[in-house]
């Protein structure tokens, strides 16, 4: 047998072995399923977070919106502080993203609801408990006369990520290495009123005080 034919055969055998081993690994991963993690339900989220107090009742999504979002658990709630500043909080949690259910980017959802998104930027959030700062997305959004400061990030498995792209990559990696693809989108909005800076300060302050509380509901 010629050397060329021998090399081709060995390449074929090696490729076949890689495919077989890969198939075994994928099947074992699929059978193992999602790792179980303990967490509290978002309905039990604190009604007071430092100087911020819940206002009114939690919002319930209509059936059509809930079917589109496909979150396993969610929280939609308003908070206020003594100076009258208001912040709205939305957390959409997904126990597993293996089957295609995943968080929806505000870049897709909000414009479809009539909002325009302006002045895109990233900002740094420094959690109130002194843990490591993380980056979040920041936008000025407007729908008619309603103008809001928007901050949002993706969170799960100990990661706080602004980039949806990197969020997806880490979800795949953690799904393979840790058998976990759980995660959430965290969104904070504050009315702009007369000052964009005051709205940004309020939203950032709320996010900083919110961050240390979230891991009990969105596990690290």
CATH fold field value of the largest domain: Protein Transport Mog1p, Chain A
How much helix, percentage-wise, in residues?
A: 25-40%
Report how far apart the termini are.
Answer: 58 Å
The percentage of residues in β strands lies in: 25-35%
Provide an overview of this structure.
It is a single chain. The chain is an alpha+beta fold. It has two domains: 1-32; 42-216, Protein Transport Mog1p, Chain A. It is 33% helix and 30% strand. It has helices spanning 3-32, 63-69, 106-112, 164-177, 196-210; strands at residues 48-49, 52-55, 73-80, 86-94, 116-125, 134-143, 146-156, 159-161, 183-191. Strands 1, 2, 3, 4, 5, 6, 7, 8 and 9 form a nine-stranded antiparallel beta sheet that branches. The relative contact order is 0.16.
Task: Give the topology.
Elements: H1 3-32, E1 48-49, E2 52-55, H2 63-69, E3 73-80, E4 86-94, H3 106-112, E5 116-125, E6 134-143, E7 146-156, E8 159-161, H4 164-177, E9 183-191, H5 196-210
Antiparallel strand pairs: 1-2, 2-3, 3-4, 4-9, 5-6, 6-7, 7-8, 7-9
């Amino acid at each position: 047998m010629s050397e060329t034919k021998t090399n081709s055969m060995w390449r074929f055998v090696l490729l076949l072995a890689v495919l077989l081993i890969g198939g075994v690994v994928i099947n074992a991963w699929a059978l193992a399923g999602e790792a179980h993690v303990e967490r509290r339900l978002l309905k039990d989220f604190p009604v007071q977070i430092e100087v911020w107090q819940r206002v009114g009742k939690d919002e319930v999504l209509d059936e059509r919106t809930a079917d589109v979002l496909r979150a396993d658990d969610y929280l939609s709630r308003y908070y206020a502080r003594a100076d009258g500043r208001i912040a709205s909080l939305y957390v959409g949690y997904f126990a597993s993203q293996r089957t295609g259910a995943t968080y929806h980017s505000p870049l897709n959802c909000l414009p479809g609801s009539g909002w325009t998104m302006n002045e895109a930027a990233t900002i740094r959030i420094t959690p109130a408990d002194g843990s490591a700062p993380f980056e979040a997305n920041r936008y000025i959004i407007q729908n008619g006369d309603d103008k809001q400061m928007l901050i949002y990030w993706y969170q799960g498995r100990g990661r706080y990520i602004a980039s949806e792209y990197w969020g997806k990559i880490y979800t795949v990696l953690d799904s393979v290495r840790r058998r976990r693809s759980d995660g959430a989108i965290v969104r904070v909005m504050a009315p702009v009123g007369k000052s964009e800076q005051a709205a940004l300060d309020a939203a950032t302050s709320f996010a900083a005080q919110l961050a240390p509380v979230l891991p009990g509901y969105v596990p690290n």
